[in-house]
Specification:
Number of domains: 2
Largest sheet: 6 strands, mixed
Shape: elongated
Radius of gyration: 21 Å
Number of helices: 6
CATH topology of the largest domain: Rossmann fold
Helix content: 25-40%
């Protein structure tokens, strides 16, 4: 018998469900979502569902985690303050695709670099400017988004910028080429900014779930439910 534990953290309630492949839903429980400390709501729901089902923690083979908190944060305009590193673009490009509006005054670092549609370098990546700007801005942000001109054809400058920022600050970095294969640079930048804003929120949710799993001695893979319904490892 394979038992899975499902946890769904919504804006109001956190639900927990135990599911058996052979018999379907074994037990379910609901608790209030505690936004100030997500672990409290998860602990209440998971503790109740385990108690109701009387299922040993060792029998749980998989834990899946889903949430609408990210969608809610986007709709409500919440999330962390991030800096966009905009490589090889003109100043006017930041006005396209709703990018300037999405930044809401968050820092924009525009530096030389980028590639042409064939993947050939347009200019050297200005590492000196990047180092200077990152050092000044890092204490004021929760993460960075990096988008370079035609990085979908050659991501070298995005990767170099990301590696430097991570090494210098330890902050999370989202690269545009990792999220979209489309050539529209400002739109990729917009996607990167939105993703970077949510990393702290999702990381906190995953950490809360992992903490509750440890408390109940649940030794099983933790998977996150993507927007398309597929599962991905929380370690990604």
């Amino acid at each position: 018998m394979t038992i899975s534990l499902g946890i769904d953290t919504g804006g109001t309630y956190t639900d927990a469900v135990l599911f058996d492949d052979a018999n379907g839903v074994i037990a379910k429980a609901k608790a209030l979502t505690t936004r100030h400390d997500l672990a409290l709501g998860i602990a209440a729901a998971v503790g109740t569902v385990l108690a109701n089902a009387q299922v040993p923690s060792a029998d749980i083979a998989l834990v899946s985690l889903s949430t609408t908190l990210a969608t809610n944060a986007l709709v409500e305009g919440r999330g962390g303050r991030v800096a966009l590193v905009f490589i090889g673009f003109d100043a006017g490009d930041a006005e396209r695709a709703g990018l300037a509006e999405a930044l809401h005054g968050d820092p924009l670092i525009r530096i030389a670099g980028g590639h042409n549609p064939h993947g050939d370098s347009l200019a050297l990546l200005d590492m000196a400017a990047l180092e200077r700007e990152v050092a000044a801005i890092a204490p004021t942000v929760t993460g960075f988004a990096v988008t370079a001109q035609f990085a979908t054809r050659n991501p070298a400058h995005e990767i170099a910028a990301r590696d430097f920022i991570v090494a210098a600050t330890g902050l999370p970095v989202t690269c545009g080429h990792e999220l979209s294969a489309k050539l529209d640079g400002p739109r990729r930048a917009l996607t990167s900014v939105l993703n970077a804003r949510l990393i702290g929120l999702i990381s906190g949710l995953i950490a809360a779930a992992q903490g509750i799993m440890a408390q109940h001695q649940i030794d099983a893979p933790l998977m996150v439910v993507r927007g398309d319904g597929a599962l991905m490892s929380a370690a990604v």
